Amino acid sequence: MATAAKKAPAKSRSDKQSNLSAPKPADFTKEDELSAYRHMLLIRRFEEKAGQLYGMGFIGGFCHLYIGQEAVVTGMKMALIEGDQMITAYRDHGHMLAMDLSPRGVMAELTGRRGGLSKGKGGSMHMFSKEKHFYGGHGIVGAQVSLGTGLAFANRYRDNKNVSLTYFGDGAANQGQVYESFNMASLWKLPVIYIIENNRYAMGTSVSRSSAETDFSHRGASFKIPGIQVDGMDVRAVKSAADLATEWCRAGNGPLILEMQTYRYRGHSMSDPAKYRSKEEVQKMRSEHDPIEQVRARLLDKKWASEDELKAIDKEVRDIVADAAEFAQHDAEPDPSELWTDIVL
Amino acid sequence: MPIEILMPALSPTMEEGNLSKWLKNEGDKVVAGDVIAEIETDKATMEVEAVDEGTLAKIVVPAGTEGVKVNAVIAVLAVDGEDVDKAGEGIGEEAPAKAEAAPAPAPAAAKSEAAAPVAAAPKTEVAADPDIPAGTELVSTTVREALRDAMAEEMRRDGDVFVMGEEVAEYQGAYKITQGLLQEFGPRRVVDTPITEHGFAGVGVGAAMAGLKPIVEFMTFNFAMQAIDQIINSAAKTLYMSGGQMGAPIVFRGPNGAAARVAAQHSQCYAAWYSHIPGLKVVMPYTAADAKGLLKAAIRDPNPVIFLENEILYGQSFDVPKLDDFVLPIGKARIHKKGKDVTIVSFGIGMTYAVKAEAELRGMGIDAEIIDLRSIRPLDFDTIIASVKKTNRLVVVEEGFPQSSVGDHIANQVSQRAFDFLDAPVITIAGKDVPMPYAANLEKLALPNVGEVVEAVKAVTYRG
């Protein structure tokens, strides 16, 4: 993968609004590395377990796994302050775990149980937490972009310093309402970071087959929204871009686009055999760019952690996931009376 | 404890598949994420990844086996410290039988086809209209002014209320409903949007999810079709999908239905469309007093409310009680005129036909009761049923299309809940089943008319 850090900065296409070049990857302390490692590992193990529970019939319907993209939400979360909001589409389990939603609550929602975050009524694609400022979990491709812009509108209306992190994929980037939202966000200088998770495939359609402009950092050009291409497999690169973007928004400069160049290892959903790409391509990403392995290698290399210490983290994470899975398999289904609740207040 | 690796399902409907290939051998070490096998169904081939770390102790189902049931044990993994040779003992020999007998781990309810009784929807009580103190001054007010006053009063009352839409601010509203609001509340709270319905409806819903109380004006509800995904999928469903955590306190308002000579794309009633959706409230007032009291209620309501106005009614004047805070209940019909011979139910501009027909019928000695629904969802069946039990006859009038109309739904409910009280079939009058034509004569033919209402009433009262 051509990473933004190694590539020449994207060239400006407009006299007035230059695209920004990616900042240097952040210098991580030992604590930063360990924290990123633990958070990404939690997402990875959680998703593997979700895949397994799906295979066993505990999880129904659609289930979109985030494996491979862990560095994006983990690095972004490291730049947030209390009150910053996050919203995304349906590949959302990683975002929820990054926003500290309870693994038990997420897993039990996947299995459709009463202890799920939405009492079992939302499922994999629809979970929310007002307390943690997580606004879903949306199943309609692109709809969350207008909604996330609305969250930023509320920040501006209240004149607080919060920022809306609005995630969408390379596929959603071709939806019309994305550009309607770009226009309003730029016009009204709304504090929103549009994070385009470019994992190269919109379900089975590669970026080059669906997009006339495949450099997504330029997608804001008509609206004077600058963009940055970021190596979304390197959590340090994500963190430094997140710092830049949050500062940009908090300073009142309006929206910013971060194109995260990333990759999903699994199919689009559980039932996607991913025949549209080669095994070699997937294997190359996994062996050369894995976001977790990168951190692990640095930790060992710098002697910031021993194999045993990393194993202990692994065990701790596995225990959290096992506990969540155990809970999600044995928690009761929602009471039938829940059919009629939460329709209107 | 050795870990059993089970045959995974690729989809909720898969029951069995073929184990085409093993990519690891007995004795191989595996870590989480390693591809260990390939399975296939008639639709797809998928890789099976290890979830746990350990040594592949035993392959129970050999490569090439067809028809392996989901959740059958296909291999055994010895975890650290376990004896690889012993881990697989006793597993596999009777595995196929075990797989057959294994209870489906999916919740039993999912497969149950027993006709368990489904609890009925709880009944929601709606408060009656507030008492208007004797001696309250009644002020003749246009519907336009009433709507503006309602918004202004609520914006004074609550700083989280704002209005957004095309031409709502500097232009003072395409139909002048927001006249003066920019001057009083400023551009922060009276927001001109670009022509971008889908986008600004979504921005409004997002702001509402964050706790603000937006009033989103559509220049006409015809344009809201661009935004209907955000209205239904985002605004109406979020409360349910979040298990009650997060809703959207938002009002979508604007002129609805046919105006005059604007043809098919600008002349459509959305009452029946939005009334179909659980999670929405739908209001369609006729009088200025109802417009004011219900818009104030809609703005305070914690749910998404569709507020359907009508361009032709904007300039009509009605008495509005002069009260500091006149709020009406959503979901309560209003008996516009009491009568005993027949019930005419209508709403919005449909009321204009009902009211004129009633006057004609009075001349014929027929005493009609007119019910103005005001709210389409929730729909006040109690008031309709009580009236039908008295008059035994029902005619419903609306401008929308006839198929799956509001009137159809009312006729269905009345036949189920008051069949024995009916002395004649319910007649539903609606717009004709055609796109709205432009030509003046055709447009007139496409809409309901007073004569149709009179004839329907004569038919149900057998006064042919």
Automatic annotation (TrEMBL), chain A:
Alphabetized CDD domains for the sequence: TPP_E1_PDC_ADC_BCADC
Gene3D superfamilies on file: 3.40.50.970
Alphabetical keyword list = Oxidoreductase, Pyruvate, Thiamine pyrophosphate
From the UniProt record, give one GO term of the biological process aspect.
Answer: pyruvate decarboxylation to acetyl-CoA
Q: Positions of the region Disordered? A: 1-27
Domain Dehydrogenase E1 component: start-end pairs:
39-336
Query: Domain of life of the organism in this record?
Result: Bacteria
**Cofactor entry:** thiamine diphosphate
Per the UniProt entry, the Enzyme Commission number(s) are: 1.2.4.1
Which InterPro entries does UniProt cross-reference here? DH_E1, PDH_E1_Alpha_Subunit, Pyrv_DH_E1_asu_subgrp-y, THDP-binding
Assembly and partners?
Answer: Heterodimer of an alpha and a beta chain.
For this entry, the protein name equals Pyruvate dehydrogenase E1 component subunit alpha
Q: Which organism is it from?
A: Mesorhizobium hawassense
Automatic annotation (TrEMBL), chain B:
Gene3D superfamilies cross-referenced by the UniProt entry: 2.40.50.100, 3.40.50.920, 3.40.50.970
Composition bias, Low complexity: 98-115
Sequence ranges assigned to domain Lipoyl-binding in this UniProt record: 2-78
Q: Which reaction does it catalyse?
A: N(6)-[(R)-lipoyl]-L-lysyl-[protein] + pyruvate + H(+) = N(6)-[(R)-S(8)-acetyldihydrolipoyl]-L-lysyl-[protein] + CO2
* Enzyme Commission code(s) on record: 1.2.4.1
**Region Disordered: what ranges?**
94-115
- The protein's required cofactors: thiamine diphosphate; (R)-lipoate
Q: Does the keyword Oxidoreductase apply?
A: yes
Specify the enzyme's EC class, one word.
oxidoreductase
Function description: The pyruvate dehydrogenase complex catalyzes the overall conversion of pyruvate to acetyl-CoA and CO(2). It contains multiple copies of three enzymatic components: pyruvate dehydrogenase (E1), dihydrolipoamide acetyltransferase (E2) and lipoamide dehydrogenase (E3).
**Protein name in UniProt:** Pyruvate dehydrogenase E1 component subunit beta
Species source reads: Mesorhizobium hawassense
